[in-house]
Amino acid sequence: MSRSVRVVWDDKLTSYDFGPGHPLAPVRVELTMALARELGVLDRVELSGCVPASDDELALVHTRDYIEAVKRVSATGEPDMSVGLGPGDTPAFAGVHEASALITGATLAAARAVWSGEAEHAVNVAGGLHHAMAGYASGFCVYNDPGVAIAWLLAQGARRVAYVDVDVHHGDGVQSMFAHDPRVLTISLHETPRVLFPGTGFPEETGADGTAVNVALPVGCGDAGWLRAFHAVVPPLLREFAPEVLVTQHGCDSHALDPLAHLMLSVDGQRRAYAALHDLAHETAGGRWLVTGGGGYELVRVVPRAWTHLIAEVAGHPIDPETPTPPGWREFAAERTGEVPPLTMSDGRSPEFRDFREGYDPADDVDRAIVATRKAVFPQHGLDPLD
Basic and acidic residues: which segments have biased composition (predicted)? Predict the structure, then answer.
């Protein structure tokens, strides 16, 4: 049971909007919060607001020149391709600085609550913009809110922070910011970069002292393989690293219905990952857990259910997967999107996996990915890669 949980929310977080037709549609977080509210999930948490991150806070990981360039784009809406803002994946829009700074401010508010002890766990589902780099926007991400939060925690005196990223895309921005800082362990489980943006995240990218960890999973990997890989890599490393704070990014674009990637997870498999990370936060980080959203582009059938399960898990009151989605929410979702909403909180799966310690199959693509990662980093943590 979690002692106290804070969910950071402001309706203005939906102003992070790249326009009609862009995959990162803000309606996904709007529908998530509406579903969580109707299911009573938000009754079990403390809701709090946020303010935009200051320039000094953004500059913990971003260059001052970049921040000023984003402000210029924000004032006019005119593209500046020198910093990666439109046209393309990350379009320019008027107000982009303010919208991006507010998302970062929300993640910082969550970090402050956890570090100060005001909350044991804290969530910003609008956050998780993990592709933004120090000096340019990338992959729908303008400011790197997990990176800013981690840097802020270090500035407050945290000696070890672990970051686990379960988005289908490699958490390249966060890795690049801390790859040579041994105080930060970054672990990313993602689809192989041989076929998916951003083209990084190979096992041999190990950073300082093996503190950058990458699990590159094969196309078509489903619940059983993904969970097998997660449990073969994440728990041993977190136990050995013993972070003071666990930061997790929960892009749900690993789902089989996501239009931008090729993994085959279900909402039920994703729930298992959330529960495992909750347990690990208590076991390895004294319960200090900072949670963000991330990618996810199936806006009605996947994101709202996945992240409502996430908030419920963080709150210590998981939702029965067989729970029907509320009729009022289904009507609202249909009105907002024209899509047919799901009827229950489950995909009807009961994910099971075979523990890696039961044996390694060299002919299996998932097992080969596991072994490549373990061989690359486990020895640097004093762990046996084949044990």
Answer: 349-360
